[in-house]
Design a protein that fits this description.
It is built from 14 helices and 19 strands. The protein is of the alpha/beta class. It folds into three domains: 121 residues, Methylthiotransferase, N-terminal domain (Rossmann fold), CATH 3.40.50.12160; 237 residues, pyruvate-formate lyase- activating enzyme (Alpha-Beta Horseshoe), CATH 3.80.30.20; 41 residues. It has a six-stranded parallel sheet, with helices on both faces. Strands 7-8-11-12 form a four-stranded mixed sheet, sandwiched between helices. Helix 7 packs parallel to helix 9 and helix 10 packs parallel to helix 12. The radius of gyration is 22 Å and the shape is globular. Keywords: 4Fe-4S, Cytoplasm, Iron, Iron-sulfur, Metal-binding, S-adenosyl-L-methionine, Transferase, tRNA processing. One of its GO terms (cellular component) is cytosol. This is Threonylcarbamoyladenosine tRNA methylthiotransferase MtaB. It comes from Niabella drilacis (strain DSM 25811 / CCM 8410 / CCUG 62505 / LMG 26954 / E90).
């Protein structure tokens, strides 16, 4: 296909996916494609998928149907985790023209050039063991905040998770490459960089999954990375998107506590407050370690915002085990939760665990924890009432309003003022 000139994107899932979509978009624009909104009619639609839950799979299928109704002659390209895990299933969706696995998503232009609309769906994929390269990616849709991918893949074997099958082995950029990206983003006007990865704290393995020392001649790890980033001029704020509790060492916590640029904000996956369930999930810590990390953070930074990932309805989660999770989170000094309802994923160990929690009960538990999360965030915000904190306001004018976040991740909404866009303002809460 040589005439295609317009392209529209839709991203499902995590911040890492957003950074990759943004990089693919820039790559296609350099090749002569004009970017359109996903609601517009375009020659090519690219959907970057997630497959963490069943909902992400369903949403992908719904999006393809919507494109079929709106623009039946347009090319539909599916990439991302769902595309790597179930390429045949996606290729069977009416309207899909091209399925790109993990190794091919950044070769998208070459594949599109060879496509015709009425051919059978083409699958370009490979075994995940063959995926070894690292592609630097970052989002610059909004100059204010950018998601910078510094790590990809995961060597963990959590019993509920398909990510290692979709993303491959843990691998990273070099520190020098990350610093170069950060300087480039500073030059483009970005004020805040959110560091993203699949298992961010495992940073330090080279593109082939081996220690980066083999390439750079020096050992690299996440602690060394943040020390170097702290010196980059022009970036006012860094955030750590999500980091496993067993990889969040005291030296990282203490560094953030003393840094001017790294914000007092952590997002730390818990998944369950029951040690029995954590064991069944094959997590690499117990709740006592998690509580210790939270306690250390709050001792050094009482104002720090702490987000939590938690899964409800995992197989074997009795009422008593769920109550353990609820009580643990209730007493823990954290600020908000991302609550996920467990959904069965093919080829995962969790499928063999009994008893299965009925779906209505899973949904009920999700609602209970979301209510607790709401109360936690209300309490966290009230604790800072009357304080003056620095807010970075975003560029968007939403119906005459603008939004921004304090250093410790409290969202602020105020009437739009152009002169405040992409500026850090002292704000009384």
């Amino acid at each position: 296909m040589h005439s295609a000139k317009t392209v529209a994107f839709h991203t499902l899932g995590c911040k890492l996916n957003y950074s990759e979509t943004s990089s693919i978009s820039r790559l296609m624009e350099r090749e002569g494609f004009e970017k359109k909104e996903f609601t517009d009619v375009a020659d090519v639609y690219v959907i970057n998928t997630c497959s963490v839950t069943d909902n992400a799979d369903k949403e992908c299928r719904q999006l393809v149907r919507r494109i079929q109704r709106k623009a039946p002659e347009s090319l539909v390209v599916i990439t991302g985790c769902y595309a790597q895990l179930k390429p045949g299933e996606i290729a069977d969706i009416p309207g899909v023209d091209l399925v790109l696995g993990a190794a091919e998503k950044f070769n998208i232009v070459r594949h599109i050039r060879e496509l015709s609309k009425n051919d059978a769906a083409k699958i370009c994929s490979c075994d995940i063991e063959e995926v070894t390269g690292f592609h630097s990616s970052y989002s610059i849709n909004d100059r204010t905040r950018t998601f910078l991918k510094v790590q990809d893949g995961c060597d963990y074997t959590c019993s509920f998770c398909t990510i290692p099958m979709a993303r491959g082995k843990s691998r990273s950029a070099s520190i020098d490459a990350v610093i170069e990206d950060a300087r480039s983003l500073a030059a483009s006007g970005a004020k805040e960089i959110v560091l993203t990865g699949i298992n961010l704290g495992d940073f330090g393995k080279g593109p082939d999954g081996n220690a980066a020392a083999a390439i750079t001649g020096r050992s690299e790890n996440f602690y060394k990375l943040i020390q170097e980033l702290d010196q980059v001029e022009g970036i006012e704020r860094f955030r750590i998107s999500s980091i496993e509790p067993n990889l969040l060492g005291n030296e990282i916590i203490e560094f953030v506590a003393n840094s001017k640029r790294f914000m007092p904000h952590f997002h730390i996956p818990l998944q369950s407050g029951s040690n029995t369930i954590l064991g069944a999930m094959r997590r690499r810590y117990k709740r006592e370690l998690y509580a210790d990390r939270v306690g250390h953070i709050k001792t050094l930074m009482p104002h720090c915002c702490i987000g939590v990932d938690v899964i409800v309805g995992f197989p074997g989660e009795t009422d008593a085990y769920f109550q353990e999770t609820y009580d643990f989170l209730h007493q823990l000094d954290v600020s908000y939760f991302h609550v996920f309802t467990y959904s069965e994923r093919a080829n995962t160990h969790a499928l063999s665990i009994q008893p299965v929690v009925p779906v209505p009960l899973r949904n009920e538990r999700n609602k209970i924890l979301r209510n607790l999360s709401y109360m936690k965030m209300q309490y966290f915000e009230q604790q800072h009432s009357g304080q003056t904190r620095k807010v970075l306001f975003e560029n968007h004018n939403k119906n005459g309003m603008m939004e921004g976040y304090t250093d410790n991740y409290i969202r602020i909404s105020t009437p739009h003022r152009t002169e405040w866009e992409n500026q850090v303002i002292d704000w009384k809460l």
